[in-house]
Amino acid sequence: DKLPGIVYGGNLPATPIELEHNPIFYALRKEKFHASILTMELDGKEELVVLRAFQMHPYKPQVMHIDFQRIAADEKVTMRVPLHF
Protein backbone atom coordinates (compact mmCIF):
# COMPACT_ATOMS: atom_id res chain seq x y z
CA ASP A 1 0.00 0.00 0.00
CA LYS A 2 1.08 3.56 -0.68
CA LEU A 3 1.03 6.42 1.80
CA PRO A 4 0.47 10.00 0.58
CA GLY A 5 2.50 12.80 2.10
CA ILE A 6 4.05 16.18 1.55
CA VAL A 7 7.46 17.79 1.99
CA TYR A 8 7.43 21.54 2.59
CA GLY A 9 9.68 24.37 3.76
CA GLY A 10 13.17 25.45 2.85
CA ASN A 11 11.96 28.25 0.55
CA LEU A 12 10.93 25.62 -2.00
CA PRO A 13 7.43 24.73 -3.16
CA ALA A 14 5.60 21.97 -1.31
CA THR A 15 6.22 18.60 -2.95
CA PRO A 16 3.64 15.81 -2.79
CA ILE A 17 5.19 12.39 -2.13
CA GLU A 18 4.11 8.77 -2.04
CA LEU A 19 5.82 6.29 0.30
CA GLU A 20 5.50 2.61 1.10
CA HIS A 21 3.08 2.34 4.03
CA ASN A 22 4.54 -0.47 6.14
CA PRO A 23 8.10 0.84 6.65
CA ILE A 24 6.68 4.21 7.78
CA PHE A 25 4.04 2.55 9.99
CA TYR A 26 6.71 0.58 11.87
CA ALA A 27 9.17 3.50 11.97
CA LEU A 28 6.51 5.68 13.64
CA ARG A 29 6.47 3.22 16.56
CA LYS A 30 10.09 4.16 17.36
CA GLU A 31 10.69 7.35 19.34
CA LYS A 32 13.91 8.20 17.53
CA PHE A 33 12.07 8.45 14.19
CA HIS A 34 10.05 11.37 15.60
CA ALA A 35 13.19 13.32 16.58
CA SER A 36 15.63 12.37 13.81
CA ILE A 37 16.92 14.28 10.83
CA LEU A 38 16.18 12.07 7.85
CA THR A 39 17.62 12.03 4.34
CA MET A 40 15.01 11.81 1.60
CA GLU A 41 15.56 11.65 -2.15
CA LEU A 42 13.30 14.06 -4.03
CA ASP A 43 13.57 14.61 -7.77
CA GLY A 44 17.00 12.98 -7.81
CA LYS A 45 18.46 15.15 -5.00
CA GLU A 46 18.96 14.27 -1.37
CA GLU A 47 17.25 16.61 1.10
CA LEU A 48 17.29 16.74 4.89
CA VAL A 49 13.83 16.52 6.45
CA VAL A 50 12.18 16.07 9.84
CA LEU A 51 8.82 14.54 10.61
CA ARG A 52 6.26 17.25 11.38
CA ALA A 53 2.88 15.51 11.45
CA PHE A 54 1.03 12.35 10.57
CA GLN A 55 -2.58 11.24 10.62
CA MET A 56 -3.76 7.77 11.63
CA HIS A 57 -6.99 6.04 10.61
CA PRO A 58 -9.52 6.26 13.50
CA TYR A 59 -9.73 2.51 14.09
CA LYS A 60 -7.45 0.70 11.62
CA PRO A 61 -3.68 0.39 12.14
CA GLN A 62 -3.07 2.59 9.10
CA VAL A 63 -1.23 5.86 8.53
CA MET A 64 -3.39 8.11 6.35
CA HIS A 65 -0.99 11.01 5.61
CA ILE A 66 2.47 12.19 6.63
CA ASP A 67 4.17 15.63 6.57
CA PHE A 68 7.89 16.33 6.48
CA GLN A 69 9.65 19.69 6.73
CA ARG A 70 12.83 20.43 4.81
CA ILE A 71 15.73 21.70 6.88
CA ALA A 72 19.10 23.18 6.04
CA ALA A 73 22.31 22.30 7.85
CA ASP A 74 22.93 25.98 8.64
CA GLU A 75 19.45 26.74 10.08
CA LYS A 76 18.15 26.38 13.63
CA VAL A 77 15.46 23.76 14.11
CA THR A 78 13.14 23.59 17.11
CA MET A 79 11.75 20.17 17.90
CA ARG A 80 10.70 18.07 20.86
CA VAL A 81 13.10 15.34 21.87
CA PRO A 82 12.16 12.62 24.37
CA LEU A 83 14.42 12.33 27.43
CA HIS A 84 14.62 9.18 29.53
CA PHE A 85 16.22 9.03 32.97
UniProtKB/TrEMBL annotation:
One of its GO terms (cellular component) is cytosolic large ribosomal subunit. GO terms for biological process: translation. InterPro entries: Rbsml_bL25/Gln-tRNA_synth_N, Ribosomal_bL25/Gln-tRNA_synth, Ribosomal_L25_dom, Ribosomal_uL5_bac-type. Keywords: Ribonucleoprotein, Ribosomal protein, RNA-binding, rRNA-binding. It comes from gut metagenome. This is Ribosomal 5S rRNA E-loop binding protein Ctc/L25/TL5. SUPFAM superfamilies: Ribosomal protein L25-like (SSF50715). Residues 2-68 form the Large ribosomal subunit protein bL25 L25 domain. Pfam families: Ribosomal_L25p. One of its GO terms (molecular function) is structural constituent of ribosome.
